[in-house]
Amino acid sequence: MARASQLLSLEMEEFLSWMVAEKGRSENTLAAYRRDLRAYRAWLGDRGQTEIDTTNADVLAFVSERRASEAAPSSVARQVAAIRMLHRYLARERLRPDDPTVDLEGVKVPAGLPKPLTEAQVVGLLDAVTGASPTDRRDLALLEFLYATGARISETVGLSIGDLDLESRLARLLGKGSKERIVPFGSSAGRAMQAWLGPSGRPRMEPTQWLRRDDAEAIFLNSRGGRMSRQTAWGLVRKYGERAGIESELSPHVLRHSCATHLLDHGADLRVVQEMLGHASVSTTQVYTKVSQERLHEVYRAAHPRATAS
Questions:
Q1: What is the pLDDT of residue 21?
Q2: Domain 119-302 class?
Q3: Catalytic residues
């Protein structure tokens, strides 16, 4: 049986339910908040306190301990955000008279620039998929689609047959907060998708009986004939990155970065890229303009005969 401190209080459970119903938070976000609040409640429990009677000094002590730990700044920042939202909720619902996090400062996360692949590396990655077996066709279609659309990996593995229009080369993606958007993809990705969905591809990986109804609609299938998971897709991207000799550890998000950066490199409008990536704010997309500018300077310094002349 779990310790009492490992279980969330009724108030915390109500808060998480409110986050889903009122704020539309995803299952992944909810799971992360649940872990964060469990750790917070265990810390309070060791001091004989709860989230109802804790003080501003207690909250500051907890955050100070987390900052001093070896936890990543992004993890601490998320935990601080979860605690802030919890106490804001408790105060609004009058479950406690005040909000002890009012003066709590957030944790700054280093804003590291994305490291996109070069266009030559993308070609090498796609060329690393050889053969014409059903799995080869699937893997190439997956990589081509990720790079062509800049889609998140969860959006990609969540694709169903009805979300794809091969004739118009359009895909419907379900993004964060259940927001839908339509994105285009090019002829190269279109050919890869047609090869995968054709007679020599996906149909040959279909099981004799679908385990779940949702699997029958999935674009990307795993080796057992079910809908491909995020973890499987991550593994495939990493495998072909290693095969292509890409030294940095490759992830689906790097392909998303690469798509955005290469679009801007070739003159795409920032607002168009924002819409395509499903960013709520254009400021999120603007980080890619910094990447493009840095790459421009790198190319200039390497290519211009008087760039480094003394």
A1: 83
A2: mainly alpha
A3: 152, 176, 253, 256, 279, 288
